[in-house]
Design a protein that fits this description.
- By secondary structure, the chain is of the alpha/beta class.
- It is 48% helix and 11% strand.
- The strands form 4 sheets. The chain has a 7-stranded parallel beta sheet with strand order 3-4-2-5-6-1-7, with helices on both faces. A 6-stranded parallel beta sheet has the order 8-13-12-9-11-10, with helices on both faces.
- Helix 14 (340-349) runs antiparallel to helix 15 (355-373) and helix 30 runs parallel beside helix 34.
- The N and C termini lie far apart (79 Å).
- 41% of the residues are buried.
């Protein structure tokens, strides 16, 4: 490979205008220029692209850069051309080019004018392209986002596994592989697959001191996100969601609450995606709500916050996505919302995949759970995952360090834990061990008959969640080794064996509990009022309105709605419509006296209303709700509706109950008239009119099981539709 005589710093100044290199960039570039295979592990914002761009510009021939995303290629080609006098210096070759454009690219390549050619892995695998590349001089291959090679990586791409054989078929030239996220296991996998076992490896620290990490229980996440972003008005941020549907919902919620937000996901057409990305980069929009399709290679240095609405399926993904915050060294806040229900969803996604892939997927999910639930410094846990030791006990820039939890001496627990692991022949993973110690009988424990083991339940005075926490902290402190090669089986380290020989005091911290079932203000939850005095006033008012309307109180507003009113203090019709279980119809029919009472109470008691808590919600456009309403209008049976949506009749009935509780009328007469004579229906309607309680169990007892639960639920829906809506 030919290089110019001037120094690398002079070359950097000449091509890019920078006066000095960042981190280990200079050593990496020297390695590439010396024709050595080079492996670069450098966090987002560390300057990976410079490691192949500068040597490409300095070398004879064309450097071929394998990149996974078409949008990313265009951005990088545009950036390189911005430093050059002609467009020929850099091109991309992918499916977006027409025949004429492709001809221009090939002409520049044959003439030797192009220094950098960005290709998709799929482009590189086509035989016609392989034959063409054999005819041009190639300086080296750069494999960007190299973690895509590894099945243990967070963004596995099968095409990447073929890169080595294709490179061999074209020319045996040096390879530089680059990634922003690589655990020791992924690093090993990349080097093995690319035949780079003798490569020069450069691994920068994964510590980003300016990033603040926090994980919160997922309770009313949309509302929390709106309130959080309102503190950062006018600043750039990214909100990541796992599904396209959630992206649209969150983006719309932000928009109606005055945030300049745009959605970004693979379901949008390419033009819209490009437009939204450009608006974000040009600061015409402050927030992008996206799936992981957004952000790879996006060079926006002043992203001030990255919020995860859903916890990601791997720590590599989480690290890379949070790495888009604070790339300029300024403030970067990384907030994640966590519920174990989301983890269960991720595990369901693995069903139907090959067994080995399921095991890998579960292991990656377990690491994410460990991070979310950890009580130790989040920075320490994150860096440990990437094979790096963080020496400080308190980073001062994560929720666990700023608000540390209760400490305890774990000596006895660790002795029991490690003795149990050895008793079970070091054959089991963390979840199995924690369930075994806590005396929880799982299907796996039962199938192996370990519930009959003499040590089963030996630690039942400690909860399973705490045993998991003790295991995680023991792994971080190197008392226990988790064998990744063996799907996360726990082994005792040399340090752990020394501890067992001579136990000593070890300080650990209590786990942070995330109770997904805790009371929250949501459509289906009874949350408890924060202002008990107002709640009592509203409950009394509900009785008065009910007497005037000759209806049971629950028909006016459900108790959960009153609790929400006594928390949110709505004083306008719009705010009332955001209250749990209150739709437009119900608000207009019964809302006025309640709004007057709340307004008077607020004024008399000089209450400062939590305006930031009144987060506008978007109209619920749930596809299921719309489908149910349309199907009932078409007089379909509940069985037909349930079958069409792959659900039980009970699920459909529950959904209809929610629809009616919010104020929408539903007419089930086409079903009820086939089941119950008119006189029976009148008898049930009279019962619901007179009873004070909204209980189906009471109704079943009242009628001595004459009517089924399903019939009574449908009749209650009819009653509420007639009387309450």
């Amino acid at each position: 490979m030919q290089t110019a005589s001037m120094s690398l710093t002079d070359q950097l100044k000449k091509f890019f205008g920078f006066n000095k290199f960042k981190g280990e960039q200079e050593q990496v570039i020297e390695s590439v220029l010396q024709d050595d295979d080079t492996f670069v592990i450098m966090p987002t914002g560390g300057g990976k692209s410079m490691c192949y761009q500068l040597p490409a510009l300095m070398s004879e021939g064309t450097a071929i850069v394998v990149s996974p995303l078409i949008a990313l290629m265009k951005n990088q080609v545009d950036a390189i051309r911005g430093f050059s006098t002609g467009n020929h210096v850099a091109h991309f070759m992918n499916s977006s080019l027409n025949k004429t454009d492709l001809g221009i690219v090939k002409e520049d390549l044959v003439a030797g004018r192009t220094k950098l050619l960005y290709v998709a892995p799929e482009t590189l695998t086509k035989q016609a392209n392989i034959d063409f590349f054999k005819t041009i001089k190639i300086s080296f291959f750069a494999i960007d986002e190299a973690h895509c090679i590894s099945e243990w990586g967070h963004d596995f791409r099968p095409e990447y596994r073929r890169l080595r054989e294709i490179i061999e078929a074209i020319h045996r030239v040096p390879i530089i592989a680059l990634t922003a996220t690589a655990t020791p296991k992924v690093q090993q996998d990349i080097q093995k697959n690319l035949g780079m076992s003798n490569a020069n490896v450069f691994k920068a620290s994964f510590n980003r001191p300016n990033l603040y990490y926090e994980v919160n229980p997922k309770k009313e996440a949309n509302s929390q996100i709106v309130k959080y972003i309102n503190q950062y008005q006018g600043k750039s941020g990214i909100v990541y969601c796992l599904s396209r549907k959630k992206v649209e919902e969150v983006a719309e919620t932000l928009q109606v609450n005055g945030v300049k937000a745009l959605p970004y996901h693979a379901g949008l057409d390419a033009t819209t995606r490009a437009k939204h990305q450009d608006m974000f980069l040009m600061e015409e929009a402050d927030v992008i709500v996206a799936t992981i399709a957004f952000g790879m290679g996006i060079d926006k240095p002043d992203v001030r916050f990255v919020i995860h609405h859903d916890i990601p399926k791997s720590l590599e993904g989480y690290y890379q996505e949070t790495g888009r915050a604070g790339r300029d060294g300024g403030e970067g806040r990384c907030i994640a919302f966590y519920s174990y229900k989301d983890i269960e969803k991720l595990e369901k996604f693995l069903q139907g995949k090959p067994v080995a892939e399921q095991e890998i997927g579960r292991q990656l999910i377990f690491e994410t759970v460990s991070y979310a639930e950890t009580a130790v410094c989040r920075r320490k846990q994150l860096l440990h995952y990437f094979g790096e030791t963080y020496e400080e006990e308190n980073c001062g820039n994560c929720d666990n360090c700023i608000n540390p939890r209760v400490e305890f001496d774990a000596k006895d627990s660790m002795v029991l834990l490690m003795s149990t692991i050895l008793e079970l022949k070091e054959n089991f993973k963390a979840n199995y061990i924690s369930n075994f110690l806590a005396g929880e009988i799982t299907s796996e424990i039962k199938s192996l008959r370990n519930d009959e083991h003499k040590s089963f339940g030996a630690g039942k005075d400690i909860e399973e969640i705490k045993w998991n926490s003790i295991i995680r902290q023991s792994i971080i402190n190197n008392y226990i080794i988790k064998e990744i090669e063996n799907y996360g089986v726990l082994k005792i380290s040399d340090k752990g064996r020394e501890f067992l020989d001579n136990p000593h005091s070890v300080t650990m911290v209590e786990p942070k509990k995330y109770d997904a079932s805790a009371p929250v203000i949501s459509a289906n939850a009874k949350g408890g009022a924060s202002d008990e005095e107002l709640f009592a006033i509203l409950k009394e008012l509900r009785k008065e309105v009910a007497r005037d309307e000759d209806l049971p109180p629950y028909v006016i507003f459900a108790e959960v709605s009153l609790e929400d009113m006594a928390t949110q203090y709505p004083i306008t019709m719009e705010e009332l419509c955001n209250i749990t279980g209150v739709g437009q119809g119900k608000a207009e029919k019964f809302g006025e006296p309640f709004l007057e009472a709340i307004k008077q109470y607020v004024e008399e008691n000089e209450i400062e209303r939590p305006d930031d808590m009144i987060v506008k919600s978007v109209v619920n456009k749930s596809g299921l709700k719309v489908f149910i309403i349309q199907s009932i209008d078409r007089k379909l049976t509940l069985e037909d509706i349930a079958t069409a949506k792959g659900k039980d009749v009970d699920d459909i009935l529950e959904e209809i109950e929610h629809i009616v509780a919010s104020g929408t009328k539903i007419n089930l007469d086409h079903i009820l008239n086939d089941l119950l004579d008119e006189e029976y229906q009148e008898e049930i309607i009279d019962y619901f009119r007179e009873t004070e309680e909204d209980s189906i169990d009471d109704a079943i007892q009242e009628f001595d099981e004459t009517y089924s639960e399903e019939e009574l639920r449908m009749m209650r829906i009819k009653f509420l539709s007639i009387m309450g809506n």
